[in-house]
Design brief:
The chain is α+β, with helices and mostly antiparallel strands. It has one domain: Ubiquitin-like (UB roll) (Roll). It contains 3 helices and 5 strands, in the order βαβαββαβ. The protein has a 5-stranded mixed beta sheet, with helices on one face. A hairpin with a 2-residue loop joins β3 and β4.
């Protein structure tokens, strides 16, 4: 099971607790994780990725094992520690402004 930590506003929207657990059938990539997340929680569609392009929204960041993987290809494999459930996959809102 992959553990996913969502920001507060998305947890509220999906009506979930601090952590979501997903079982991925097949390859464990950022894309497959987000596909599974949106399939299980359809109300999250369009909040993390754009509806049309399926690209990450600009103010959303992904972290795995303490590394920002937001700008990596969505097809890269997730780290083994995330796949095994030892480490969570974080979806975080970026802070902008000045």
């Amino acid at each position: 099971m992959i553990r996913v930590i969502l920001p507060h506003h998305l947890r509220t929207l999906a009506k979930v607790g601090d952590e979501v657990q997903l079982d991925l059938n097949g390859s464990a990539t950022v894309k497959s994780l987000l596909d599974a997340l949106e399939e299980r929680y359809p109300m999250l569609r369009g909040t993390i990725r754009d509806h049309g392009t399926m690209k990450r929204r600009p103010l959303v960041r992904f972290f795995a094992c303490g590394e920002d993987i937001s700008h990596e290809s969505p097809e890269i494999p997730l780290p083994d520690a995330v796949v095994k459930g030892d480490e969570p996959f974080f979806v975080m809102g970026a802070i902008a402004g000045g």
